């Protein structure tokens, strides 16, 4: 993408404006008489129209013009923004989107949309006030500018006399008579006489008012009326101007006037050497102190993000992130060398570099952070459409739009969220009749919220529907052979069955929710983002799907540990604490691996066993307690080496089946350390707890 | 002396187009995203001409012109309106508020340069 191409900027801008338009229309549906909304919607249309025409998107400009004309009646209060209107307006928005993305392809459907739009707007107008305004409010055609000067009878005349006085405020309003005269000189050779007859006495003179008149004789063969109109284009309506042909070919020079003749008949007026015109005072540019009044609020309003933001192609950010990643690795190597050296100068610079690169890493990741609201808005449209298709009344509420996540995470999050929302609307919410029967508001609610939670963001899709039906899930899972008939499952485990591949509980497969290939794909995508998905449900009250996602995918703070000869990294965000494994704990444990951490039992896994390493562990083994969501597990390691900035590299496809690791990183000495998948380890810890405590009970 | 033009528009593409055109013609360009931003920039920088859109959030073009013309630094500074409407009424209001001239969108680059030359001589 070429960033310096305004056409591309326009496309990008148009996409944003269309999103704004859509959001505005959807808001308007809820709040049809909100003038601010109507105005901002109108403004979005207006900007698309204006810029579209500028950059050759004629079809866009024409279509938007009609759209705008119809919508103008809403703005003028002649018509109401009802559901039907919003529906057609959304179609119109989609049509504009198509036109912008495919400027050359022939796209049909625009006319029908406009016809519908007009029909609704006209219909609504009659309902509203009964004042049937004309469908198209035609702007009054600009009055043709006619020079009042008598048309010269003799078109063969060579000399013309032009006399003009500027409006009195012309000088302060930025008109420079000298430039006008220079322009006149472009028509033909001129001689100019300043008319001082209107200059008042010195004691009442206002230095900013334009008193001077000008008499300009032009030598030109053709009628100069049009050319002169051009020169005075901006001033014609309120200035005095007369133009008349001068009789006789050999016109006498008009130098008998008292004022000096200013001869500006130079062919090419030089650019910068602008001589100060005698009666045009150079504008006083007062270096006024910036008006920093206590208007912080107003200022904040004015400084919308756009005011100080810069558009950068996304690839450049990815590239920057890659480079920072490489820098961090190089810095780690330097630190390692410095640490094994006794050179204090080298150590100092290595520490300095570590500090800088860590700052650079944070800044770079900050740049990549995008508010999640950017994808929330498209779900509003989704819910709006679903509501129509399924005939369910739905209120869609979003919170936490400003929560920021890494750009890549956000992009990959859109599809899973679409699926979860569809699922909630389609399977979760009951029909209006059932809701009434259950004593609920016939209008269902779906909430989408995002909040920070440590180094993660928790995104929840909450519905107030029927909740997950455990009997149905169970029956279905048995039918599909996912569980055996006598399997004892906790509610939590039952809930998680819906994420199993090939699971679907909808009695009839609807067009919307697909064929049970959804939830497992959602889970896989979230796993791929190093996130977790969880569901809780209350029968009759609704369900909550919660996604927990790391803030970023690229670089994390890790804790480096050693097991045997291998080194591994644990994401620091997951580490709760580190303790020493008490000597002799095994002997007392009667085969069960639990630690007593301040009164609560925490299961622990020996990584040595998990990895299938031979040999004995170190004499003083350490336990790293990691947590994810609700569960905790202790990981027994040989040695805790320390913190390290971990640049995450994906494992190759060959290794993607390995569950205990989520990636790898390159250490300072060039060796590779695997990154532990804490979510998976915690889960196996949990099932260990259930097995053992279940057996004990 | 290089002349500085302030362009006020909420549309990034229009600002970019104006900036590219004027920069290529050897002028300096300052950009502002709405009338209020424009006012702040016009009163804290030395500008030789202002090109402003009409329909903008926060402070629209006509409001901007009214407010700016109250400021002493505005004296003699030409203000050009960018307008899509052929609406005489808006143009009249803008002129009354102190606009110097206008360009009707869509415009070509050379039309823009011609108008700038007309009001600044540059």
Automatic annotation (TrEMBL), chain B:
Any Gene Ontology biological process: phosphorelay signal transduction system
Residue ranges annotated for the Response regulatory domain, each copy included: 4-120
Annotated positions of the 4-aspartylphosphate modification: 53
UniProt keyword Plastid present: no
Lineage top rank: taxon: Bacteria
The entry's keywords: Phosphoprotein
PANTHER family: CHEMOTAXIS TWO-COMPONENT RESPONSE REGULATOR, STRESS RESPONSE REGULATOR PROTEIN 1
Protein name: Response regulatory domain-containing protein
Annotated source species: Devosia riboflavina
């Amino acid at each position: 993408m070429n960033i310096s191409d305004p056409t591309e900027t326009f496309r990008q801008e148009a996409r944003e404006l269309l999103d704004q338009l859509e959001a505005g229309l959807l808001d308007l549906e809820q709040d049809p008489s909100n003038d601010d909304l109507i105005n901002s919607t109108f403004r979005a249309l207006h900007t698309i129209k204006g810029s579209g025409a500028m950059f050759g998107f004629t079809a866009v400009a024409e279509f938007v013009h009609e759209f705008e004309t119809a919508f103008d009646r809403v703005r003028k209060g002649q018509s109401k923004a009802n559901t039907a209107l919003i529906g057609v307006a959304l179609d119109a928005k989609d049509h504009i989107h198509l036109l912008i993305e495919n400027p050359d392809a022939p796209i049909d459907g625009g006319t029908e949309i406009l016809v519908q739009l007009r029909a609704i707007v006209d219909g609504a107008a009659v309902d509203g006030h009964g004042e049937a305004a004309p469908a198209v409010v035609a702007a009054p055609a600009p009055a043709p500018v006619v020079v009042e000067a008598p048309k010269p009878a003799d078109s063969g005349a060579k000399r013309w006399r032009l006399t003009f006085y500027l409006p009195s405020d012309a000088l302060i309003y930025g008109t420079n008579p000298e430039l006008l005269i220079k322009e006149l000189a472009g028509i033909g050779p001129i001689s100019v006489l300043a008319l001082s007859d209107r200059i008042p006495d010195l004691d009442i003179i206002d230095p900013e008012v334009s008193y001077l008149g000008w008499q300009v004789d032009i030598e030109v063969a053709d009628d100069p009326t049009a050319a002169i109109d051009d020169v005075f284009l901006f001033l014609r309506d309120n200035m005095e101007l007369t133009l008349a042909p001068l009789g006789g070919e050999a016109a006498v020079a008009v130098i008998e006037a008292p004022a000096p003749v200013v001869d500006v008949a130079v062919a090419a007026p030089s650019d910068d050497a602008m001589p100060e015109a005698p009666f045009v005072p150079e504008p006083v540019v007062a270096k006024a102190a910036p008006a920093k009044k206590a208007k912080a609020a107003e200022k904040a309003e004015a400084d919308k993000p756009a005011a100080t933001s810069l558009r950068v192609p996304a690839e450049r950010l990815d590239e920057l992130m890659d480079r920072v990643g490489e820098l961090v690795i190089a810095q780690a190597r330097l630190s390692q060398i410095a640490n094994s050296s006794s050179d204090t100068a080298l150590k100092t610079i290595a520490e300095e570099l570590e500090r800088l690169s860590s700052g650079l890493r944070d800044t770079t990741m900050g740049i990549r952070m995008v508010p999640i609201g950017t994808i929330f808005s498209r779900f509003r449209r989704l819910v709006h459409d679903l509501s129509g298709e399924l005939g369910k009344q739905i209120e869609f509420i979003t919170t936490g739009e400003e929560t920021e996540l890494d750009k890549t995470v956000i992009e990959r999050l859109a599809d899973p969220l679409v699926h979860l929302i569809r699922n909630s609307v389609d399977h979760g919410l009951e029909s209006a009749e059932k809701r009434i029967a259950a004593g609920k508001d016939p209008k269902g609610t779906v909430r989408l919220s995002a909040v920070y939670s440590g180094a993660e963001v928790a995104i929840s899709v909450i519905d107030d529907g029927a909740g997950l039906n455990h009997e149905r899930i169970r029956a279905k899972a048995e039918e599909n052979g996912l569980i055996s008939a006598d399997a004892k499952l906790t509610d939590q485990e039952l809930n998680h069955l819906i994420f199993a591949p090939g699971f679907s509980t909808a009695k009839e497969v609807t067009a919307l929710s697909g064929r049970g290939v959804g939830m497992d794909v959602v889970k896989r995508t979230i796993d791929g983002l190093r996130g977790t998905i969880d569901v809780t449900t209350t029968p009759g009250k609704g369900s909550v799907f919660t996604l927990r996602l790391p803030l970023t995918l690229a670089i994390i703070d890790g804790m480096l540990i050693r097991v045997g000869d291998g080194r591994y990294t644990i994401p620091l965000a997951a580490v709760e604490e580190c303790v020493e494994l008490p000597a002799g704990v095994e002997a007392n444990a009667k085969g069960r691996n639990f630690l007593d951490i301040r009164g609560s039992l925490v299961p622990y896994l020996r990584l040595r066993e998990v990895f299938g390493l031979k040999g004995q562990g170190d004499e003083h083994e350490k336990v790293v307690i990691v947590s994810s969501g609700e569960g905790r597990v202790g990981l027994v390691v040989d040695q805790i080496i320390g913190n390290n900035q971990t640049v995450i590299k994906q494992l190759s496809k060959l290794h993607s089946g390995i569950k205990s690791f989520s990636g790898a990183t390159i250490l300072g000495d060039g060796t590779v350390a695997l990154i532990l998948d804490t979510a998976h380890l915690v889960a196996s810890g949990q099932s260990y707890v259930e097995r053992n405590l279940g057996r004990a009970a | 002396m290089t002349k500085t033009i302030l362009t006020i528009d909420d549309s990034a593409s229009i600002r970019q187009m104006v900036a590219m055109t004027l920069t290529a013609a050897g002028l300096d360009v300052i950009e502002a995203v709405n009338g209020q931003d424009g006012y702040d920039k016009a009163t804290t920088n030395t500008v030789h001409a202002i090109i402003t859109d009409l329909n903008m959030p926060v402070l629209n073009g006509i409001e901007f012109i009214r407010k700016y013309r109250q400021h002493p630094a505005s004296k003699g500074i030409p203000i050009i309106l960018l307008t899509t409407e052929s609406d005489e009424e808006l143009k009249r209001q803008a002129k009354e508020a102190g606009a110097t001239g206008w360009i009707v969108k869509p415009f070509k680059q050379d039309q823009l340069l011609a108008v700038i030359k007309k009001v600044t001589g540059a």
